[in-house]
Each structure stands twice: as C-alpha cells, then as structure tokens.
Amino acid sequence: MRVVIIEDEKPNATRLKNILLDIAPDTVIEAMLDTVSASVAWFKQHPHPDVALMDIRLADGLSFDIFQQVELSCPVIFTTAYDEYAIRAFKVNSLDYLLKPIEKEDLRQALEHIHKQAQPAGSTEMIAELLAFIRQKETTYRTRFMLPFRDGYKTVLVDDVDFIFYAFNVTHLVLNDKTTVALTQTMDELEEQLNPGQFFRANRQHIVNISSIDNIQHSFSGKLKIRLKRDPGREVLVSKEKVPLFKQWLDK
Fold first, then answer.
1. In terms of Cα–Cα distance, which of 63, 120, 69 is closest to 86?
2. Which domains does the chain have, with CATH numbers?
3. What's the confidence (pLDDT) of residue 169?
C-alpha cells in the first residue's frame, strides 16, 4: 500500500507513519507533506498513492483547498482534532475521518472502509460540497474557560486571554493580568474552538489574541516576528508559509 501523509504537526505525522507500518509493514510512505502548496505540487508531479491521510488544517490553509487545484484519483482519510461541523458533513457525505489522537484500530477500520467503497472517498464533487458546507456554516466558538481554583473552579472569559503557549508537553493560558494557567486542551483543539477573527495560531507553540500584539517585524527566511504588549521578551515567529494568512487576518 502506497500512502501520502499530509500533516503540519511533525509528531502527529510521525505517529501516523508508525501506526501505518504497524498495521501493514509493507506500507510505503511516498511523501510526508505539511502545506497545501507542497501537497498540490507533489500530486501534480507524482503518481497518486493508494491512500492519502490529510489533516484538515494545515500551515497555509485547509486541506480541502488542495482539491480546488488538483484532482485526486485516490481515497482520502481526513484527520481532525476538533471540528463538529466537519464531522457532521463527513457523516452526510460518507467521507472518512479520524479524530486525533489517532488510534491504531480506528485507522485500521478506516482503511478497510475506503477499500470497500465503490468510488474514492476523496471525489472532487463531494469535497467541494463539504468545503462549501464548512465555510458557510455558522460556528459557535468558545467564550469562556472553567479552570480549577482552590477547592473548586473559576470562570475565565476568552476576552481576558492574552495568548496561549505550549511548553514541556503542557498547554498554558496567559491572561491579561499575566496570570498563567495550565490547560488540558491541546493547541489543535484550542485552534478549532477559538474565534479565528480574534485568535491566530502563529506557530506550533503560540496562539495570540489580536489585542495582545504590540508590533510586527521582519525576521529571517521570510518569517515575521510578533512582539507582544505584555511579554515583549517572548519570541513569537510566524512561519513563511503562514505569513500570507497572518497578513490577511490582520487586514480584516
């Protein structure tokens, strides 16, 4: 079985690769890609694999955008950390998806399922319908966090969140008063739950509130450096691939 993995989080991509090789040791990983642009270029230049595994959100956009630029002739299994509307759409269109973290038995069943389908799970028409559905659907975003406090809990409004960072395998919430709180949610989950008009995933380690930005500077290799108002010493870099999305987000 020839497989292409499209995932912008390297640990997730490596996990998928290892699970695939565990399920089917003769699997050949044709490519491991992390952006829409790189995926489009690869599919245009190479024979299509037996299966493509795609994360929904990539560094430079949604993986559904790949289908607007190249017609895939292989089945697709999508992966997502949290996206209830996408999941509903998958059920409607009988497309395959897996929730992160990916488990071996779930992936095994998904592979068996797509091999039984009469038509590829990634057909262009179905993908177009799904993309339109997700973009038009009104989404309800998280407005508050319930956090442990002394012998009970306290509520923190999302508007009071300055930025979020990931370090030492823990997600941290930083409030406007500089209080730092550990969260159980992953960065992928928070990226899905927070209003994209207010928050931006600058890189794998940081999600910033638009109100937390003091200024933006050019950095090396086409990257941008965000300087935060309340933590000016923190280095928050926007990758070259994400710069166009970041500029578009700022210019709304």
1. 63
2. 2-136 (3.40.50.2300), 144-250 (2.40.50.40)
3. 92
Supply the DSSP symbol for 202.
Answer: -
Give the N- to C-terminal CA distance of the chain in Å, as an integer: 44
Are the C-beta atoms of residues 205 and 225 closer than 8 Å to each other? no
DSSP 140: P
Q: pTM above 0.85?
A: no
Instruction: Show Cβ contacts of residue 171 under 8 Å, excluding neighbours closer than 6 positions.
Output: 164, 165, 182, 183, 184, 185, 186, 187, 190
Model confidence at 95, in pLDDT bands (50, 70, 90)?
low
For 115-168, how does the pLDDT look when each residue is reduced to its tens digit (9 = 90+)? 776 544 445 666 666 666 665 555 678 999 998 888 888 899 999 999 999 999
Residue 237 CB burial class (10 angstroms; 0-12, 13-18, ≥19): middle
Indicate the Cα dihedral angle 101, 156, 163, 203, nearest 10°.
10
Contact of 236 with 226, CB cutoff 8 Å: yes
Report whether 36 contacts 58 (CB < 8 A).
Answer: yes
Q: Could you tell me which residues are beta bridge partners of residue 89?
A: none
User: Rounded CA gap, 187 and 204, in Å?
Assistant: 8
